[in-house]
Specification:
Blueprint: H1 3-6, E1 11-18, E2 25-32, E3 36-43, E4 46-56, E5 61-63, E6 75-79, E7 85-89, H2 93-110, H3 135-142, E8 152-156, E9 159-166, H4 167-176, H5 183-195, E10 199-202, H6 204-212, E11 226-229, H7 231-234, E12 253-263, E13 270-279, E14 283-287, E15 298-301, E16 306-309, E17 327-331, E18 337-341, H8 345-359
Antiparallel strand pairs: 1-2, 1-7, 2-3, 3-4, 5-6, 6-7, 8-9, 9-11, 10-11, 12-13, 12-18, 13-14, 14-15, 16-17, 17-18
Helix pairs in contact: 4-5
C-alpha cells in the first residue's frame, strides 16, 4: 500500500464478508479510506498486498443491525449507489456499531453540500411516538415464530437461564424491524413494554436495574442483561428457541472477544478465528467465522496455562509460514502449544493482559 494511501487509513480490522456468487462467509481484512472500503485476504499469517475488492461509499446506505441471519446477529449491510449489497459481520455488537458509525461518517462527508440532509443511514421510521404505538402489536411481532426475537440460553454467575434474550438483542430487533429508528428510541419502547408487564427481567443485572432505577433506565441495552416474555405471553405459543443449554465451560462471563489468526496443530496453516475469553470458569474458546454453527471448534481451560509474547524478529521456533509479527504463545496445562497472531501490537498486548488477568484468579 502506497505511503500516501497508508496515511489516509481511517480504520482497519477483520470483518467476515458474505460472498456475492457463492454465499459463503470469509474473514477479510478491511481498510476504511476517506471514500471507499477496501478488503484483503490473509494468507499464511500475512495480509495479501493485492486487494480482493473495494466498496465505494458515495451515497452508500447502511443497515445496522441486519438480523436476517439467525446465527449471525452481528451483521450490518452496505448498499452502494449501484445497488450492490455487502453483508459484513463484526466480532461484537460494539465493534459492529462502531464500524457502521465510522462508515456512516465517511458517507456523510462525501455527501454534496447542497444535498438534502438524510434522515439516517439506517432504514426506519421518522420518529417514535409512543402514544401511536400499540404495545400489544409490538409484543405480538416479537413473539412471532418466523420473524420474532430468537430465544436463547444464557448463563450468569453460575446460574443458567433458558428461553430468554439479552437487552441488546431486543434493541437490535426493534431497530431492524423498523419499530424504532435509533437505539435510544428502541430502549424507550422496550422500557414501555417492560413497564406494561409483557417482559420480565431475569438474572441479577436486569432485576437490579428494574428495582433501583427510574423508568427511563430500567431497561438495559446490554448483552449481559437478560429478559424473557411474561408467563401470560408464553401461553400464546412458542417462538424460536434454542434446544440445548450451554455447557459449563461456556457459562462464564465474556471478558474479551475478537478476531485473531491461529496456527493449526497438524497442517500448521493459519486461519482467522473468533476468540472468546471467559471468566468464572476461565476458558478461551475459538470459533470458525465461516460457519453458521454457534458451537466453538476448539478451546481450553486457562487453569495452569502460560501465555507470553513472541519476538517479532524472525520466525520463532514452532511457527510456520511468513507471519508478520504480533505473535503470542499459550501453553496449556496438558502441554499443548497454541500460536496466535493479533492484527496489531496493541491487540497482542491487550489479549496477553486479559488472559493473564484470568490466570491470576
Amino acid at each position: 500500500m502506497a505511503e500516501d494511501q497508508q496515511n489516509s487509513i481511517l480504520k482497519e480490522g477483520f470483518l467476515v464478508k458474505r460472498g456475492h456468487v457463492v454465499h459463503n462467509w470469509k474473514a477479510r481484512w478491511f481498510v476504511l479510506m476517506p471514500d471507499k472500503l477496501l478488503y484483503y485476504k490473509y494468507d499464511g499469517g500475512k495480509r495479501d498486498p493485492c486487494q480482493r475488492g473495494k466498496i465505494m461509499l458515495t451515497d452508500c446506505e447502511i443497515s445496522c443491525p441486519f438480523l436476517e441471519y439467525d446465527n449471525r446477529p452481528l451483521v450490518f449491510k452496505l448498499r452502494t449507489k449501484s445497488s450492490a449489497e455487502y453483508f459484513l459481520e463484526a466480532c461484537s455488537r460494539e465493534e459492529r456499531d462502531q464500524w457502521a458509525a465510522d462508515i456512516g461518517a465517511v458517507v456523510e462527508k462525501l455527501r454534496p453540500a447542497d444535498s438534502p440532509i438524510s434522515q439516517s443511514t439506517t432504514t426506519g421510521p421518522r420518529s417514535l411516538q409512543l402514544h401511536n404505538v400499540s404495545l400489544n402489536q409490538v409484543v405480538d411481532s416479537m413473539h412471532d415464530v418466523h420473524s420474532g426475537i430468537k430465544l436463547t440460553s444464557h448463563n450468569e454467575q453460575g446460574s443458567s437461564y433458558s428461553n430468554c434474550f439479552s437487552g441488546s438483542a431486543v434493541v437490535d430487533w426493534l431497530v431492524f424491524s423498523q419499530l424504532a429508528l435509533t437505539r435510544v428510541e428502541a430502549v424507550t419502547l422496550a422500557s414501555a413494554v417492560l413497564e406494561e408487564g409483557f417482559l420480565r427481567p431475569v438474572g441479577m443485572r436486569s432485576v437490579e436495574a428494574q428495582r433501583s432505577h427510574g423508568l427511563s433506565e430500567q431497561f438495559l441495552d446490554d448483552s449481559t442483561a437478560l429478559y424473557s416474555f411474561s408467563e401470560n405471553i408464553k401461553k400464546r405459543g412458542s417462538v424460536k428457541a434454542e434446544t440445548s443449554l450451554s455447557a459449563m465451560e461456556l457459562s462464564g462471563k465474556v471478558v474479551k472477544r475478537g478476531y485473531l489468526l491461529k496456527q493449526g496443530h497438524k497442517r500448521k496453516n493459519w486461519k482467522v478465528r473468533l476468540f472468546v475469553l471467559r471468566s468464572e470458569p476461565g476458558y478461551l474458546h475459538y470459533y470458525d467465522p465461516s460457519k453458521d454453527d454457534i458451537s466453538p471448534v476448539g478451546g481450553f481451560s486457562l487453569r495452569g496455562c502460560l501465555v507470553s509474547a513472541l519476538d517479532d524478529n524472525g520466525v520463532p521456533s514452532g511457527v510456520k509460514g511468513k507471519v508478520q509479527g504480533n505473535l503470542l504463545k499459550i501453553i496449556t496445562q496438558s502441554d499443548t502449544h497454541y500460536y496466535i497472531q493479533a492484527p496489531s501490537r496493541q491487540e497482542k498486548m491487550d489479549w496477553i493482559e486479559a488472559i493473564r488477568g484470568q490466570l491470576n484468579k
